[in-house]
Amino acid sequence: MIDDLKKLIDSIRDFESWNTVKKIKFFLWYKEATSNRDNFSSSEINKCFELARLTKPSNTNSFINGLIKKRPPEVIKKRKGFYQLTGIQYDYFNDKFGKKASTLEVLKILKDLESKIPDQSDKVFFEEALRCYTVEAYRATVIMIWNMSYYHLEVYIFKNKLIEFNDQLPKTYPKAKVSSIKDFDDFSILKESELIQVAKSAGIITNDVYKILNQKLGRRNSAAHPSTIIISRLQTEEFIHDLITNVVLKYT
Description:
Arc Repressor Mutant, subunit A, 3 strands, 66% helix, Four Helix Bundle (Hemerythrin (Met), subunit A), single chain, elongated
């Protein structure tokens, strides 16, 4: 929690200029947005001040009681010593900072995935993809993750399954521009869809992985070519997680 909260605060340019009341409301929102509870004690709010390395209020309960007494109230007393933001106040902070909090949570998951990626070249692709994701360049993220995963599969085949691949290639595509892969760069002669099909037919990848790659290739094509299709954050996250767990981490 400490890293996520600090990163979120660091991303808010004017946070230091906020008064104590706004910070208390922010922490009430943050606690609810990142947990399975909806009401919190003043001591839990004070803990947020400590985690954020801020001076905690001399009397947090007094500030909270002031928010309860406002007309209209901005905080609700749920039970003795436990408080909750009103719906309007929660929506205000969620609209402003909910997306940032969610992005930081996903970035943490992606960073955990990065630590599991075995190949240094893959990590270079992945780090660039993360930079794209951080600035909400989702089309670019999709393209970079596809490049990483496809390159990873090429390396895996070249190092471990080249005999099987070369045996299957002329059977699946007798008129292909290349009849066998001798040098790594020969892969570039094949279409991506052709390599995936040969890998499946040769038993190098499973049918389920083939379906994932085929679907993600279509999504990559949509991202790479001018179109009105919108690629959302959630679609991008699913794209990243699916390819890394089912291709990059599976074929090593």
